[in-house]
Amino acid sequence: MSIVFHEKSKVFHLSNGQVSYIIRIMENGQLENLYYGKSLKDREDFSYLHEESMRSQMSINSPEPSILSMHYTRQEYPSYGTGDYRSPAFSILQENGSRIVNYVYTAHDIFRGKKDLAPLPATYTESDEEASTLEITLHDQVTDTDLVLSYTIYEDYPVLTRNARFIHKGSEKIVLERALSASVEFLDMDYELMHLSGAWSRERYVKTQKLTTGIQAIQSLNGTCSGAEFNPFLALKRPHTTESQGEVYGFSFVYSGNFLAQAEVSTFDMTRISMGINPEDFAWELNQGESFQTPEVVMVYSDQGLNKMSQIYHRLYRTRLMRGTWRDQARPILLNNWEATYFDFDEEKILNIARKAREVGVELFVLDDGWFGARNDDYRGLGDWYVNLEKLPDGISGLSRKVEELGLKFGLWVELEMVNKDSDLYRAHPDWLIGVPDRFESHARHQHVLDFSRKEVVDHIYEMIAKVIRESSISYIKWDMNRYMTEPYSRNTEASQQGMVMHRYILGVYDLYTRLTTEFPEILFESCASGGARFDPGMLYFAPQTWTSDDTDANERTKIQYGTSMVYPLVSMGSHVSAVPNHQLHRTTSLATRANVAYFGTFGYELDLNLLEDREIKKVKKQIQFMKEYRELIQVDGDFYRLISPFEGNETAWMVVSQDKKNAVAGFYQCLNRVNGSWIRLKLQGLCEDSLYEISYDTELDTPIEPALAATYGLKIEKDTVKTYKAYGSELMYAGIPIDRNLLNNKSMDFSSLLFVIKQVSE
Ligand code: DGJ
Question: Which atom of ligand 1 is nearest to the CA of 528?
Fold first, then answer.
């Protein structure tokens, strides 16, 4: 058991040989954090780590002669108003208008395994041996409420998960105005705060800033999702921590709605990390007998740099957050018709695209937006989940069977949480919209948010879409969501409960996911929100892959996928080869580079292959063959290493290494071409130093232009383009793969790339 309680010193030590987390019950009954970091040898008493000294202007809320002041104490779950002037983890409004509470230790429980947080998503265990849990119960006498702080430590990973639960036993009504999931305190401020931020089509760029005194925070107030602006993740890294060495603490929030993640540095240089549901417009009423469960925070500690932190998140989230049939499986290679047709299609056009897809080896055809109601543009139709028979005379059932007869699986797009005012659904239920009566209802993409905080709305949508699925042959669903919430207000909810609406909305989304994944367990779900505005762990619990971004340009994708990989595994990242010039940026990149980037994700195509030339179709066939051979390594088995950051220069590189270190694939990408460039060395990671490897890469003309035109530019085309050589793992990691920029120059233009396949061979 990796959790011990030392009775005499009242110290809990959670440890697994990789990480230690030490909590003490203080004299005032509240909880103090004594240590979080690299594993410590256990001992009876760590209380010397408590720091306490008299300071002027100190507020002390224990009887004299105590000098214990909460402002200088590293607390586990700080409260408001009793001498700590930093941000609290929670705040409870009571009937007398007071927010003062005093939660003191009453009991604890240590057990093997981990409790389910359903209906909330959370990481889980498959056997009780995989983790141990500590639940500490605190009690506030005046309100008669329990607060249960829960900590799980995984046996094999430096991972701790945390959540809090309020159980109200008293007779007065209380209101939780703030109920974060975790608060973690660090001794000093010598850290950089790292987070992922962006906007539509440039999601999850890596941002790093030195911590400074005061509050630095990221958040979502989008209502419907975690958002493209900020991801529910932050990390504290030491200034000298790199991808491959140094300390970093990751905090990832398993939730898909409004969140707050902040670092607060006191004027005594202590750093407090807070994470949870955003308190803004949150007020959760608790009556006698009711309880509130916060979502989970997943904390990863690494003393081997950012790559190690990410690899731990990847493995944990792939195997103990994702669930269901697809959890351990490599993903089908798909073709999605969105950028091929947008709304302009009929059955014949779709079948034509599907036929060509089948010919090149694609396995799954996905019909995107535009198949239902009067949906010929984005002004109308959302909410009418029955097929548009003018476009598809045999319905989705007929089309799905025809696609299957071609030898492909069939997938379908939906956007279940939304409605256009021009729809039968809106005309029948105008009061089902989120919005305040007599106030303007802001619109976005001409659509409105259905009130998923109401069960009858979720029930209705479930019945409509389940009917389509039951009648058809559907193997995959892309669940889209294309707007943020405005005027958050539920029309049939009491005034005093309006602060519950946004969390209830997310619970409604989770409920619908639960119903659909339960009734259709074989279906592969991909979540999506205007590209990647809902790339969060909460979603991955229900849908094991997410559309990473609407930006399908290969060069932009190096940044987006690099940033996303900080937390999320490659198998969760929807990545497609699309047409050139690219629809978002109008940039032209080669077919090879587009695939070389998309391989490091779920891999698929998003274009009409009928429009490609024969020589391109030959390449596409080779790409699909390659992915079929390597997807198990890339998506399921391998560890991902970031090698060169696109946020720091002209190049990007990354690689995947199999668990047994026998196989690897590495991608190298340049942004702009250079004339008369120098050689560079690409240093690999994760290989076995003493093993001999064969490295092969294809230098085939990596250009989007015609061979004839290439000749006029003086670009050489060689017959045998595959180069191979052998080197030991130590050479590949410490001396590196020499890359001749001139070779890139002679063979390519801007945005060229190389893909290396590395296989262990015998001497
Ligand atoms: C936004 C998604 O990100 C796109 O991939 C596409 O499905 C459109 N919505 C369809 O409306």
Answer: 3
